[in-house]
Request: fold
Amino acid sequence: MNQQMIKRLLLTCLGAIALGGSHFVVPARAADAGTAIAPGLVLPPMNAEHGKDLFASKGCVVCHSVNGVGGTDAAALDAETMDPVMSPFDFFAKMWRGAEPMIAMQHEEIGHQIEFTGQDLADIIAFAHNAAVQKTFTEDDIPQDIKEHMANDEESGESHMMKGGGMMDSGGMMGGQSNGQ
Reply:
């Protein structure tokens, strides 16, 4: 197995661990363009503008809000509420703790589990931590099909708040725990 294949395999495994075996694919270009952190491991470049587009188009906005735009069924992901310095792996770990209810909500809200590449997640994390780019996020950024999912949820009056180990409690995305989690 060549070194390039090993890099992709390792990043795929890290992503699968971070998302509970979700569909996680690392394109070769993301691995090639990343920053080496250890032999065979790279961190992909992070693009907050692309993350803004993905946050809307992948459907994250159905449950999460940014800049007051989006759903209220899960934690808001405003940059001001994030830890001031955070490893992307800590962000993944917090997603992992909320993975089961988050995946269930994806099936309920949009009809399928969202698929992410490693680059997608890197860009979404960059968006979640970039207040300047978040300030440009408006309802106009949300694709029509995603707006329809949001409207259907509002019309039904359903709430799908995640509690007890999900993203909304102190162990979730905004928890800011410092006990090694």
Q: What stands out?
A: Residues 46-156 form one domain. Helices lie at 3-18, 28-33, 48-57, 88-97, 99-110, 118-128, 131-134, 144-156. Residues 1-31, 159-181 have pLDDT under 50 and may be disordered. The longest strand covers residues 35-38.
